[in-house]
Design a protein that fits this description.
about 725 residues
C-alpha cells in the first residue's frame, strides 16, 4: 500500500490526541504529580516573545484610547443593542467580573492577565453574555494593537463607563500583560457541575467562614453570591452573611462591600425577560458556526428587552444610565416583596411604586418597567451593619461616590501590584495601604563594608540563608504581594509565624539590625545581602568562586504602612524548600511545594535546583536532617542529586510517613527523607532534572544555576528595577 493511501473507513489523523476526548497522562495516572502549573505560559504560546508590554504601553495615546472607549458607550450595535442606548452597564459588568475573581487567600484570579477570555471563566454561568462585551471592544483592541492589552482595555472600559455616567473615578493605571491560554494554577472548586449547591464547598453552609480555602465565591460558576439567595432560596440575612465572608475573601471590608454592591447596581440592569432554556451552550461548548459566541438564542428575538442573562429581570434604579443616589432612594423608599421573573428567578419588587420612580424600557422610553432588587441588595437593607453604612451613603452622596470610586479602583487594581508599577496619566499619587507601600531605601552605602560586617558577625551560613529565604519566599506572582522588600519579616504577623522559627529569626535580626542602622543600609537589604553571603560561602566550600549580583535600594516598611491582617493569608503552611510542614493536610506535601513554586514564579528546573542547594546547605526548618543527602553539609554541592539517584540506596517507608535511605548491602540507615525529597527521584520529569544535576560534568553548572534562581527569588519584588 502506498504511503498516501488511506484504508477505507480509516481516519487519517490521530484520534483523541488533539481534542479533549484524548486520554492524558493525568487521566491514566490521576495520583501522579502534575507539573503543568509550572510549565504554563511558556514562551512558545506567546506571539509577543520579544515584546516588552510595560514599555510599549507607555507609548499609547492615552487620551485617544479613552476617547474611543467613551464613544463606544453610546454607539449601539444592531447585533447586540445597548440598553437605553448606553453600553455602560455591560462594560462595567465585564470589568467587574474580570477583576472580581480575585481572592486574597492565594492572590489568584483577578483581571490583571485578561484571563476572562479563556475557559473556564469565559463560560461561567455568571459571565453569560460578557462574550458580547468583549466582541464590542474588539475594534478598539484591533486599532491600538499590541500596545493595548485586553486586560487593560477590559478594566478601562468599566472605568470609562462609570465616568460617562457621571462618576468622578479615583484613577486608572495601565500595565497589565495578557496571557495567551487558560490558567492551570487556579483552583475554582471540586464541584462537577455548574451552580452546584453551596453545601459542597462549606463544612456548614450556615457558617460562611467554613467555606473551603482558597475559594471565595459561594458556588461554582459565580463571581460572588447567588443573587436569588443562599442556594437560590431568598433570605436576606443569610445572604448578608455570605456577602460579608465572600467580599472579605476578596479583600474588601464592610464599607467597601456596601459601596460596591450599591455602586454596581446604581447603573445598568439584570436580564431575564425570556426562557433560559432557549439559550444555547456557553462559548466553550458552542458550535463552530457561532463564531466563538455563547448563550445564543435562536428561538426568540433574544436581544434588547428580550435578553436573558442571569434570569433576574429589571433595573435597580429610576435612571440606570446616571450615577446618582437612586439605588438608596428606591431601596429605602419602598417596601419590597418576593416575586418571580419571566425567566423564573426569585427577585424582590417594590410595593405600590409611583410611576415616576419606575425606569423606562430599554428600547421604548414611553414604557415604564418595574425595578428590582436581588437578595444581596435586600441584605444591604436588612443587615444592621450594612444598613447603617448605606444610610450614611444615602445622606451623603459625595461620600458614597468617593467610597465607591476608591473601592472600584481597589477592585480593578488589586492584583496589578504596588504604586511603582502604575503607568499612565490617570494613576493616583496617594499611598494606599492595601498596596503594601514600601519607602525607597538608600543606595549610596558601602555594600562591601556591610558585607564584611555581616561576615564578621558570627552568624552561621544556615542562619543567614534561611532568614533571607523566609523573608523573600512570601512573594506571590499572582498579585505581586510579599517578598523581601520592606523587611516585613520583622513586623507582626510575620515575626511570629511558626514557619519563620521566631527564636532563630529574632537572634538573626538582633545581629543584622545594628549593622543596618550603623551603615545606612536598610534591614531589607542587609537580610538579602546576608543570604547572598551564605550562598557564596557554600559555593567556596564546594570549590567554586561565586560573587552574587546585588542591587541595593530596598526599603523598610513601618507598622503604619502594614495592614497586618491582610498578610495573614501569606503565611506559609508548608515550605518544601526548607522541608517543613506545619501539620498534615489533605493536599500532599509535594503538591504544596508546587503551589509555592508557582507563586514564586519558578519553573520545574528552578524548583529542583533550589531544593538540591537548600538541602546541602543545611537550611531545613528546625535543623532537620531529612533530605540532607550529604556528608559535606554547608557546601553547595550536587550531593543531594547524586545520592538521590544512586542505586546503592534503597528507599524504605516508615510508619510515621518518613522514609529511610538504607544501604542495599548492609541495611544500614544512611539518611532519612520526606515525600518532598523523594519525589525528585520518583517523578519522571523531576528525576530527569535531578539526573541532569547529578552528572559529573554539571557540578559547576549547578552552582551557577542555583545562584541565578536564588537571585531571581531575592529580586522578585524589586519592581523598581524594571520600572
Amino acid at each position: 500500500m502506498d504511503g498516501n493511501d488511506i484504508p477505507s473507513g480509516k481516519c487519517p489523523v490521530m484520534h483523541g490526541g488533539l481534542t479533549a476526548s484524548g486520554s492524558s497522562n493525568t487521566s491514566w495516572w490521576p495520583n501522579a504529580l502534575n507539573l503543568d502549573i509550572l510549565h504554563q505560559h511558556d514562551t512558545k504560546t506567546n506571539p509577543l516573545r520579544d515584546f516588552n508590554y510595560r514599555e510599549e504601553v507607555r507609548k499609547l495615546d492615552f487620551e485617544a484610547v479613552k476617547a474611543d472607549v467613551r464613544a463606544l458607550m453610546t454607539d449601539s450595535q444592531d447585533w447586540w443593542p445597548a440598553d437605553w442606548g448606553h453600553y455602560g452597564g455591560l462594560m462595567i459588568r465585564l470589568a467587574w467580573h474580570s477583576a472580581g475573581s480575585y481572592r486574597l487567600a492565594d492572590g489568584r484570579g483577578g483581571g490583571a492577565t485578561g484571563n476572562i477570555r479563556f475557559a473556564p471563566l469565559n463560560s461561567w454561568p455568571d459571565n453569560a453574555n460578557l462574550d458580547k462585551a468583549r466582541r464590542l471592544l474588539w475594534p478598539i483592541k484591533k486599532k491600538y494593537g499590541n500596545r493595548l492589552s485586553w486586560a487593560d482595555l477590559i478594566l478601562l472600559a468599566g472605568t470609562i463607563a462609570y465616568e460617562s455616567m457621571g462618576l468622578k473615578t479615583y484613577g486608572f493605571s495601565f500595565g497589565r500583560e495578557d496571557i495567551w491560554h487558560p490558567e492551570k494554577d487556579v483552583y475554582w472548586g471540586a464541584e462537577k457541575e455548574w451552580l452546584a449547591p453551596s453545601d459542597e464547598r462549606y463544612a456548614d453552609v450556615d457558617d460562611p467562614s467554613t467555606m473551603e480555602n482558597p475559594l471565595a465565591a459561594v458556588q461554582m460558576g459565580l463571581i460572588y453570591v447567588n443573587p436569588e439567595g443562599v442556594n437560590g432560596k431568598p433570605d436576606p440575612l443569610k445572604t448578608a452573611a455570605q456577602v460579608r465572608e465572600t467580599f472579605a475573601r476578596m479583600a474588601m471590608n464592610d464599607e467597601e462591600t456596601a459601596a460596591l454592591t450599591a455602586g454596581g447596581h446604581t447603573v445598568g440592569k439584570a436580564h431575564g425577560n425570556g426562557r433560559a432554556e432557549n439559550l444555547g451552550p456557553s462559548p466553550e461548548g458552542a458550535e463552530l458556526h457561532e463564531a466563538g459566541l455563547g448563550w445564543m438564542n435562536h428561538h426568540t428575538r433574544s436581544v434588547g428587552r428580550d435578553t436573558v442573562t442571569s434570569g433576574i429581570e429589571g433595573a435597580w434604579t429610576t435612571n440606570p444610565t446616571k450615577w446618582d443616589n437612586g439605588y438608596f432612594d428606591l431601596l429605602f423608599g419602598y417596601e419590597w416583596e418576593l416575586r418571580k421573573s419571566p425567566a423564573g428567578a426569585w427577585q424582590w419588587m417594590p410595593i405600590d411604586i409611583r410611576e415616576e420612580d419606575m425606569p423606562v424600557d430599554v428600547e421604548d422610553p414611553s414604557i415604564r418597567t418595574m425595578p428590582i432588587m436581588t437578595d444581596a441588595d435586600m441584605a444591604m437593607k436588612m443587615d444592621p451593619t450594612y444598613r447603617a453604612i448605606c444610610e450614611r451613603f444615602r445622606n451623603d452622596h459625595a461620600y458614597f461616590s468617593d467610597c465607591f470610586a476608591r473601592a472600584w479602583f481597589k477592585l480593578t487594581h488589586r492584583d496589578l501590584g504596588p504604586k511603582v508599577r502604575y503607568i499612565g496619566p490617570d494613576a493616583p499619587t496617594e499611598d494606599l495601604i492595601w498596596q503594601d507601600p514600601v519607602p525607597a531605601g538608600r543606595t549610596d552605602y558601602d555594600v562591601a563594608a556591610v558585607k564584611a560586617r555581616i561576615a564578621a558577625s558570627g552568624l552561621s551560613l544556615s542562619e543567614m540563608v534561611s532568614t533571607a529565604w523566609d523573608s523573600a519566599r512570601t512573594f506571590r506572582q499572582s498579585d505581586l504581594r510579599g517578598g523581601a522588600n520592606g523587611a516585613r519579616i520583622r513586623l507582626a504577623p510575620q515575626k511570629d509565624w511558626e514557619g519563620n522559627e521566631p527564636a532563630r529569626l529574632q537572634k538573626v535580626l538582633s545581629v543584622l539590625e545594628p549593622i543596618a542602622a550603623e551603615t545606612g543600609a536598610s534591614l531589607a537589604d542587609v537580610i538579602v545581602l546576608a543570604g547572598n553571603l551564605g550562598v557564596e560561602q557554600a559555593a567556596r566550600a564546594a570549590g567554586i568562586a561565586l560573587d552574587l549580583p546585588f542591587a541595593p535600594g530596598r526599603g523598610d516598611a513601618t507598622e503604619a504602612q502594614t495592614d497586618a491582617a491582610s498578610f495573614t493569608p501569606l503565611e506559609p503552611l508548608a515550605d518544601g524548600f526548607r522541608n517543613w510542614l506545619k501539620q498534615d493536610y489533605v493536599v500532599s506535601p509535594e503538591e504544596m511545594l508546587l503551589d509555592r513554586a508557582q507563586l514564586l514564579g519558578l519553573t520545574a528546573q528552578e524548583m529542583t535546583c533550589l531544593i538540591g542547594g537548600m538541602r546541602v546547605m543545611g537550611t531545613n526548618h528546625g535543623g532537620s536532617k531529612h533530605g540532607v543527602f550529604t556528608d559535606r553539609e554547608g557546601a553547595l554541592t550536587t550531593d543531594f542529586f547524586t545520592n538521590l539517584t544512586d542505586m546503592a540506596w534503597k528507599w524504605v517507608p516508615r510508619a510515621d510517613g518518613l522514609y529511610e535511605l538504607r544501604d542495599r548491602k548492609t541495611g544500614e540507615v544512611k539518611w532519612t527523607a520526606t515525600r518532598v525529597d523523594l519525589v525528585f527521584g520518583s517523578n519522571s520529569i523531576l528525576r530527569a532534572y535531578a539526573e541532569h544535576y547529578a552528572q559529573d560534568d554539571n557540578r559547576e553548572k549547578f552552582v551557577h544555576d542555583f545562584a541565578a534562581v536564588w537571585t531571581k527569588v531575592m529580586n522578585a519584588d524589586r519592581f523598581d528595577l524594571a520600572a
